[in-house]
């Protein structure tokens, strides 16, 4: 006895598994490329300055996101009252 919905489900699972394998391979390739580029960046002149700037930028971004979150909460509280 053939169940069409089960066959369709099996096909979708196979397609999803194949796509997952492709994405894992791409992720591995991209991870290697990121490591390669980070190595080039670290060895480039001014690498330490760029690293310091990137850390500062990350901290500023985090603080701005926190402030935005506080503002959104205040606006939501104000709109609800």
Q: How does this model look, in words?
A:
- The termini are far apart.
- Helices cover 91% and strands 0% of the residues.
- It folds into two domains: 1-44; 47-81.
- It has helices at residues 4-43, 47-80.
- It has two helices and no strands.
- The chain is an all-alpha fold and 81 residues long.
- The longest helix has 40 residues, at 4-43.
Largest sheet: none
Radius of gyration: 24 Å
The helix-strand sequence is HH
Q: How many β strands by DSSP?
A: 0
- How far the N terminus sits from the C terminus, by CA atoms, comes to 61 Å
User: Domains counted in the coordinates: how many?
Assistant: 2
Low-confidence stretches: none
Strand residues, percent: under 5%
Shape: flat
Q: What does the average pLDDT come to?
A: 86
> Strand pairing plus helix content: what structural class?
mainly alpha
Helix content: over 70%
Tally of helical runs: 2
Summarize the structure.
The protein has helices spanning 4-43, 47-80. It is mainly alpha-helical and 81 residues long. The protein folds into 2 domains: 1-44; 47-81.
What is the strand and helix layout of this fold?
Elements: H1 4-43, H2 47-80
Could you name the key traits of this structure?
single chain, 81 residues, mainly alpha, 2 domains, 2 helices, 0% strand
